[in-house]
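Hi Q.,

Before the meeting this afternoon, I wanted you to have the zinc ion prediction in hand. No need to reply - just skim if you have a minute. The sequence and ligand are here:
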Amino acid sequence: VGFDEVLIYQNDNLKIHQLLLNRIQTNCFIVQKESEAILVDPVSNANAILDYLDSKSLVLRFMLSTHGHFDHIGAAADIIESGLVEELFIHEKEFGEVSKAPMYSALILKEKLIKPKLSRFSNILLKCLDSFGLSIEHAGGHTKGSCFLYSHNKEFVITGDLALNHNLKITLANSRENKNEFFEFVKNIEDNFLPHTVIFPGHGDRTTVKDELMYNEKWKYIRESQNGN
Ligand SMILES: [Zn+2]
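Predicted structure with the ligand bound:
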């Protein structure tokens, strides 16, 4: 199908699959518990995602996005169209961001993006996440409604673009980002997770809290600019 997939994580309870579906290395994750799956960031190419779920005989329970940027929601409308799920779950502060996604997708990826049906996080979703041993938390920072997912045992965090693998070339200053919120997020990760906690970033390979705290230039910039004022 023309994409790379890997089973990149496994513990007693869960498996995490990483699908690479565009040329800017945006991560699409499938979190699997037994035969059930939650799709996190339906990047693009719904057919590839659906084929993959099918090949592993996975039942899709929910689809959610860490935030509303075009490269994290591109396949959502087509997956809804397939009938497997009814909506894309996303923080309500991202609804405006999603509205801008079709324009950015056309501009940057030259791909048509249809705005998906959205829903704010429901109790049913939160209960389902809980049954997977997961919670979702609002952080803001990167966008107003950016959220991250983490496992209750602190083994891993799915950060969206609040973390990009430090090996990627990144822009340090983004005037639309909220530096205070971003700083609070990094501090939260430092204080409440472990050095070996695995980070599944918005872009690039899996990494760890320790490595990002040490080598992530964006995080460093955020922390230094906060301490400096
Ligand atoms: Zn983003």
